[in-house]
Structure formats: C-alpha cells, structure tokens
Design goal:
Elements lengths: L7 H12 L7 H21 L5 H10 L6 E2 L6 E2 L1 H13 L5 E2 L7 H15 L4 H17 L4 H4 L4 H17 L4 H13 L6 H4 L4 H18 L16 H4 L24 E2 L9 H13 L7 E8 L1 H7 L9 H6 L2 H11 L9 H4 L5 H4 L2 E5 L11 E7 L4 E6 L12 H14 L6 H12 L8 H6 L3
Helix pairs in contact: 1-9, 2-4, 2-6, 2-19, 3-4, 4-5, 4-11, 5-6, 5-8, 5-11, 6-8, 8-9, 8-11, 9-11, 13-16
C-alpha cells in the first residue's frame, strides 16, 4: 500500500502487527503472554459473580443478536463485541489481573477481544491466537505512557484499546491498509479517567470491557477510514495524550526487538498495583512485632504524588465498598494488620464494612512525597509506632509483583488457585486442571475452541 509520508511510525506499527510470527517472539515474551492469559482467565472466572456483572449480562443477553462468541463461565452465545465487553468486565472486576506501571491494564482487554474474535472467525489454532496475543499485548504496552503525560487519563482506556484492536485485526487477517484503519479507529475510541477509580465506581471494570468491545469493533470496521496520522498528526496521540513530550517514533523504537510487555507486573494481592508494596510492608511489620490492631498507635505511609492521588484519599465505604477498598492505602494497611492477610474475600463488601476495621483505618496516615518520584512508580515507605513505643520501618523501591521483584511460578499458580476457590460460579475441579494444561500448551492447541469450552461451567 502507499502511505502518507507522515505516517512512518504508524506504518512500522502495522508492519509489526501483521508480519510478526510467533517464532519471532522471544521465550521471555512468550512466557509473559502465557502468564497474562492465566492471570486474566483466572480473574475472569472469579469475577463472574461480582457487582455489575449480572446487570450487564442481562442487558447483553436481552439484546443479543447473532451468537458469534461465548461468555466465560455462563456460556451465553453473544455477538463477538458483546462477549468481549462482558468478559473484559468480568476479568477486571476483582482488580487482580496484569498491569504495567503506571497503571495500564492490557491483558484483561486484549485476551477477551482475541478470544471473541477467534470464535468469530470460526477456525483458529493456538499458534494463531498466541501470535495475535503477543502483538496485541506488546502494542498495548507500547502506548503506555508516564505519570507526567497521563494527568488523570485512565491508561487502560488510552493504551490497551490499540492492543485489543491489533489482536482482533490480526485474527481477522486484516491487510496492512485495513490494519492501519483499525488502529486509527481505535485512536478515536481512546478515553477514560482515573476519576472512576477515585470515586470507587463500577466504571473501572466496565472501562476494561469497553476497551475489549471497541477493539473488536474497530477491527470489524476496518473498511471504514480512520485518522491514519494518529501518531504523527497535529492532533494525534502524541499531542493529545503525550503532551508532545515524546516523538511519535518512541512508540515503535526497537519494536520486534525490545519487548515492553516484559515490564508487566502481576499482583500478589487483589488491590490496586500501587497498594501492593504497602500491603506487604504492613503484613511484614505486624508479623515481625506480633502486632494486633490494639497494639498500633499510628502508621505513616509515604508514596509518590501520582500514587497518592489514586490511592491516598481518605477511605469511605461509598456505593461500591470493594472498589473503594481496592484503591485505598488506609484500607489495605488496616486489613493487613487486622486480618494478617490480604485475600479476595477481604474485599467483599461485607468484609470491607466490618466495623472492626474502622479504628485501625483511622490510624493510617498517607502522605504524598514528591522526593520519592526518583525512586520509581511503586516506591513506598511505611513507619509504624506501637502504643508501647516500639517503631518499625519498611522501605520499598520496587514493590512485590513488579519487574525486579516479580512473582515466581508457584506464586502465579497460587493466584490462579485463589481465584478458582473464590469464584461464586466455580468451574468443576477436574476442569480447572484441564484449563491450566490448555493454557500451558496454548500455542499447540489445534483449535482454540478447546480453551473456550474449558472456560464455561
């Protein structure tokens, strides 16, 4: 095809999406893809019973249309876009999926979009699916920006949409021109605000579903023209979301050679990524000093301003206690000290509303410290004072789950097992093991339908 001379970065992006074979993907990136799939489907099965899912599912089933793809857990036959929307929302409902600093959730949109599209095309091998996931996840990671650039935009809504469209387009076998327009249309679907997180709204999980849905839709609409200068253009992504703080080439530098998805983090605890470190610190200090809540006089937590704006606000139950707890340092610290753990069940609305937590929550102070920016996105400091005068401190530059302090294989499996055990609509025990085996050998499946069937009760 003939490209506008201005769309060099866009052209390189399209060539990567369409030309990259699974054999071009290095072993560490393939491992990341498999871990993303395991994290996402585990969280999706567990999230099927959470607030907002039933209402969304009833709406989508009622307006159904042609059955093209399957909802996880329930097995509803839905249009591919609707299946992606429902499954993406389920996968984010517990906030226990993959992420990349400073806050984009990529896999929980790309995986549902790819699975829905794989069913739509009717015949898809595991090799094809993993190839599409690899390029889609990498594209999503490459649109991920910095705290200074985001300024309140939800990175999931402005980065992951490109990954979902790329994965869906790859499975639909779009040619280069069509892929360019699918990604251009994805640019016009960018959106979302961290105000949803701060307000503790269910829109956080819906945003993940919207991204998956629109990714599939943009790929399906690839015959419609979009703004092909979506990176290089005057009012393109670089201007609108990156504030002209980087060049368009930054999104494609060393693409196919440097795999930014290897910067993903996987959560040890079922709460916001920037609460991972302080949760671990609170657990460690409480265990070391053998503390109960009655022993604690005061806890001071310091974190970079970006993190503080997201999770440092005073805790309140609000309309959606789980979401408010997921995005609250005060709650995460108090829960760790009172219960000695941080489990999925500790974020249920009834557990969040437990009056036993309130006195401890009120003793947690969260401070924004600009000097910590240089230490990294996940840096956090905790200082605890007991009522008998003892002090304990913890300093993390890299929190658990982040690159450099990542989870091992046993911890990844434990996360998955926790999700299966928590699920309100559980899969049969034997089916769970089959699902684990299918994910491990995903690129060798002759038909992705084998995986889809294992995701339904």
């Amino acid at each position: 095809m003939v490209y506008d001379r201005r769309v060099q970065a866009e052209r390189e992006l399209v060539e990567f999406v369409n030309a990259t074979d699974l054999s071009d993907v290095p072993a560490d990136a393939r491992s990341t893809v498999h871990r993303v799939v395991m994290a996402v489907v585990g969280a999706g099965v567990a999230g099927a019973g959470e607030d907002g899912i039933d209402a969304l599912r009833r709406l989508l089933v009622t307006r159904c249309g042609r059955g093209e793809a399957t909802s996880m857990v329930f097995g509803d036959a839905l249009p591919a876009t609707s299946a992606a929307l429902l499954n993406g929302t389920m996968c984010r409902a517990l906030d226990f999926c993959d992420a990349i600093a400073p806050g984009a959730h990529v896999g929980s949109s790309v995986v549902p979009a790819a699975l829905a599209t794989a069913e739509l095309v009717g015949s898809c091998t595991g090799h094809d699916l993993v190839s599409a996931l690899a390029v889609g996840i990498e594209v999503g990671a490459r649109f991920n920006l910095t705290e200074q650039m985001y300024d309140g935009f939800d990175p999931t809504g402005i980065a992951s949409i490109f990954g979902a469209a790329a994965a869906a387009g790859r499975l639909l076998r779009l040619d280069d021109r069509q892929m360019l327009h699918a990604l251009a249309l994805a640019f016009d679907c960018c959106g979302g605000s961290f105000q949803s997180n701060i307000d503790g709204s269910l829109a956080v999980r819906l945003q993940q579903g919207f991204v998956a849905e629109r990714g599939v839709l943009c790929a399906q609409l690839a015959q419609v023209t979009g703004p092909v200068n979506f990176l290089e253009g005057r009012y393109g992504f670089t201007h609108l979301y990156a504030k002209n703080l980087c060049e368009p080439s930054a999104f494609v530098d060393a693409i196919g050679h440097e795999w930014r998805m290897n910067g993903f983090m996987f959560k040890k605890f079922p709460s916001c990524g920037v609460t991972q470190g302080v949760t671990q610190q609170a657990l460690d200090v409480a265990a070391e000093l053998q503390l109960g809540p009655a022993d604690v006089e005061h806890v001071e937590v310091r974190m970079p301003p970006y993190s503080h704006r997201l999770v440092g606000n005073p805790f309140s139950l609000g309309e959606n206690p789980r979401v408010n707890a997921q995005f609250s340092v005060q709650y995460c610290v108090a829960n760790a000290i009172v219960r000695g753990a941080a489990k999925l069940e500790h974020f249920r609305p009834d557990a969040v509303a437990d009056p036993a937590l309130l006195p401890m929550i009120e003793r947690v102070e969260v401070i924004a410290d600009a000097s910590m920016d240089a230490r990294g996105h996940s840096s956090v400091d905790l200082d605890l004072l007991t009522r008998d005068g003892r002090r304990a401190s913890r300093r993390f530059d890299v929190s658990p789950g982040y690159p450099g302090n990542g989870l091992d294989d046993a911890e990844h499996r434990a996360r998955f097992d926790d999700c299966m055990a928590y699920a309100a609509h559980p899969l049969p025990d034997g089916q769970v093991e089959q699902l684990v085996e299918a994910i491990a050998g995903l690129d060798r499946l002759s038909d992705v339908g084998e995986l889809t069937r294992l995701l339904v009760r």
